[in-house]
Design goal:
about 100 residues; Translation Initiation Factor IF3; about 40% helix; single chain; alpha+beta
């Protein structure tokens, strides 16, 4: 669990990111969850775009992904969401949280 100060710091970093993944009409399949997990392991901070042709809201998708992947929801604005999860990789420049 991240603090409010850490969340604000990550929001600042996440605003400059471009979405690296889209979630479409298929919703949260196992492939999507696995792909997001791999992205979080590689980057720690990921911005995802949710397309408009899906039945779930961006908040519902963010909450479900965070519970399945043990990640933190940094921000949900419109159709974009930002997730954070500390990577377990070694020899990797981790994001230094305040």
């Amino acid at each position: 669990m991240i603090t409010t100060k850490q969340r604000a710091f990550l929001r600042g970093l996440g605003n400059a990111l471009d979405p690296v993944m889209q979630i479409g009409k298929e919703g949260l399949t196992e492939n999507v969850v696995t792909s997001v997990n791999l992205l979080l392991e590689a980057r720690e901070l990921v911005k995802i775009k949710v397309l408009k042709n899906i039945d779930l809201t961006s908040r519902e998708i963010a909450d479900e992904l965070s519970s399945k992947l043990n990640a933190d929801v940094v921000q949900v604005i419109g159709n974009n969401l930002i997730l954070y999860k500390s990577s377990t990789r070694k020899n990797f420049k981790h994001i230094e949280l305040p």
